[in-house]
Design brief:
Length: 339
């Protein structure tokens, strides 16, 4: 499918800055809290995950996949859940292992490639609650997970899973790790590394032999070191290269069989240049790639306050458009361009 033209454009000069858009969206924009109903779900491997539900009595469900160290209460999660609830959809905030406020039981945790947990969550929601229509919306790490899950499953996806939307997905983890290690991202790097190292130090105390090369809080200053000495061994990978290759969604994009939208701003400082899968989108009629000039990383802010923020508006527009036009190969580009 050809690349779709984006309608996103900041109405305020401030948000032409990728840095300001990224920070405002994740930390400052006013989003009312959601009253969640928490459900603890036991996993087949002896671990658990905590699901936060916001139900309106629907047979339609969105599953929100947060970014790194995100949760159901993150601003972008709350914005999407509130918007879709208003449109008559139930919502599930999937808290990854160890991200619900309580440390998980096992050495393994969540990571960029843990699509098996997405598969478990999706099938659990369908089987237990009988949802007839399910859509996955992922942000950053969650976008990589959503696309990876859709591509890995291909035609084996449950028939109830209708579409996927991903924002700012780091489809090539090695190159994106390197990008985040650069000087202009130092403040984001410190923001992420602090909570990640707190969790990793607790795991090292539980599993000292498995994590013998992880030297602790003050020695892990970037993602390359952290993935090499913690993420890879903690999640069963022999090398960091194996982890990076196994976890990146990009090799699976060709096998996506349902409508999938990837929105990544070209001014995003988090993701590398090969995270814009132009060739894959041109060759797969199910994959739509939208590349606004502005937006930062999971930002896409038009003005300081909006009743409906652009990401949620765009996700709902795409989902309803592809639902009403099932034959993707005949769809005109303008019908999905956000106009």
């Amino acid at each position: 499918m050809p690349i779709v033209k984006s309608s996103f454009k900041p109405n305020n000069f401030t948000f032409r800055s990728a840095q300001w858009s990224t920070i405002y969206a994740s930390l400052l924009r006013p989003i009312r809290r959601v009253r969640f109903e928490r459900e603890r779900v036991e996993m087949p491997d002896g671990d658990f995950m905590d699901f936060d539900w916001s139900k309106v009595g629907s047979k339609k469900l969105i599953i929100i996949l947060a970014g790194l160290e995100g949760k159901s209460n993150s601003l972008y999660s709350r914005a999407a859940i509130r918007h879709f609830n208003k449109q008559g959809w139930d919502a599930l905030g999937m808290n990854y292992r160890g991200c619900s406020g309580e440390q998980n039981r096992l050495l393994r945790g969540y990571h960029m490639g843990a699509s098996d947990d997405v598969k478990f969550t999706t099938e659990y929601a369908i089987e237990k609650y009988g949802y007839e229509e399910v859509v996955l919306i992922g942000y950053s790490l969650g976008g990589n997970l959503a696309l990876k899950y859709a591509g890995e499953e291909g035609e084996k996806l449950p028939k109830q899973v209708k579409s996927v939307v991903a924002f700012s997905a780091p489809l090539d983890i090695e190159k994106s790790d390197d990008r985040l290690n650069r000087w202009y991202n130092w403040h984001y790097l410190k923001w992420f590394m602090f909570p990640l190292n707190l969790k990793a130090n607790k795991k090292k105390k539980q599993y000292p032999e498995a994590l013998k090369n992880y030297r602790g809080f003050f020695m892990s200053g970037n993602f390359t070191y952290f993935d090499t000495n913690f993420t890879a061994p903690a999640n069963g990978y022999d090398t960091v290269q194996e982890y990076w290759e196994a976890s990146s969604a990009k090799p699976h994009l060709h096998n996506i069989k349902i409508p999938a939208l990837l929105v990544s701003a070209t001014d995003d400082t988090f993701i590398s240049e090969n995270c814009y899968p132009v060739k894959e989108a041109e060759e797969n009629p199910n994959l739509f790639l939208e590349m606004p000039e502005n937006g930062g990383h999971c930002g896409f802010i038009r003005r300081f306050y909006e009743k409906t923020w652009w990401m949620e508006e765009r996700a709902f527009e795409f989902i309803t458009t592809v639902k009403s036009t099932p034959d993707l190969t005949d769809r005109k580009m303008s019908s999905l361009s956000g106009k």
